[in-house]
Amino acid sequence: xxxxxxxxxxxxxxxxxxxxxxxxxxxxxxxxxxxxxxxxxxxxxxxxxxxxxxxxxxxxxxxxxxxxxxxxxxxxxxxxxxxxxxxxxxxxxxxxxxxxxxxxxxxxxxxxxxxxxxxxxxxxxxxxxxxxxxxxxxxxxxxxxxxxxxxxxxxxxxxxxxxxxxxxxxxxxxxxxxxxxxxxxxxxxxxxxxxxxxxxxxxxxxxxxxxxxxxxxxxxxxxxxxxxxxxxxxxxxxxxxxxxxxxxxxxxxxxxxxxxxxxxxxxxxxxxxxxxxxxxxxxxxxxxxxxxxxxxxxxxxxxxxxxxxxxxxxxxxxx
Length: 319
Description:
This protein is an alpha/beta fold. It folds into two domains: 4-47; 60-318, Purple Acid Phosphatase, chain A, domain 2. It is 30% helix and 23% strand. It has helices spanning 4-7, 10-20, 22-29, 33-47, 58-64, 96-107, 139-156, 173-181, 223-231, 269-272; strands at 71-74, 79-84, 112-115, 163-166, 201-203, 205-208, 211-214, 234-237, 244-250, 253-259, 285-292, 295-296, 300-306, 309-312, 315-318. Strands 2, 3, 4, 5, 11, 12, 13, 14 and 15 form a nine-stranded mixed beta sheet that branches. The model is unreliable at 1-5 and 55-66 (pLDDT under 50).
């Protein structure tokens, strides 16, 4: 006869563990702590990813408000986090910023690796109508290309380093389309984007100490300034592809608003038609965040130089 936890479907069990932790999950399912740990081990092997409860620092939570279930929180005392946004992956050769991101994962040995939304483009399930007869890769082609690109990052990131994917609006197209046309398939394996990228932790935002990283917040040309003004935090976003750092200082000190640019080329085929050959205030880049004693130092950008090089800290680096 199956144990109580075994009668709970796999995805509900994982959600309970990640939200409540081991002891609370065991209590809710009326299981022994040992039994719950055993089932987690079996599911980690099946899904090929860690299933973990993100412990909340109570002092930190008291200061910022109630812990949000779609937020990941990490304490990073000293070290580097790499944040890459807006890859808009299509099949084909990877752009220079992807190659650079892989190289920097090796050279800088980051303590956290974050893909800050719009990792996939999902053009085939866009709510926007095609322009003319433009080519769009299929959903399957995009997922396979994404798995190939992300596996290159996974192979060079040190074991135990968090690999995090904050959801972007383009990523959301995958599940939005399914939820709209086939809601009866909810919770079946494969209908969630995370089912296809099991080595990455999905969330809406990740907080490294007092720094918020999420795909988007405010819009418009002053978004970076408004993001830090209205959040009251250091905040790193993508979405606008502009690649800039805007400090903001008041009586509380200095905090930073960062737009991480886009890891896709700005002339990527996914952009060509809908931008109508207009001038674009976009730059291909990603972000290096350095923490000392849990304090964020001035954020740095790695910016595309040409098709084979990036620029960083006054140097042109081949990738």
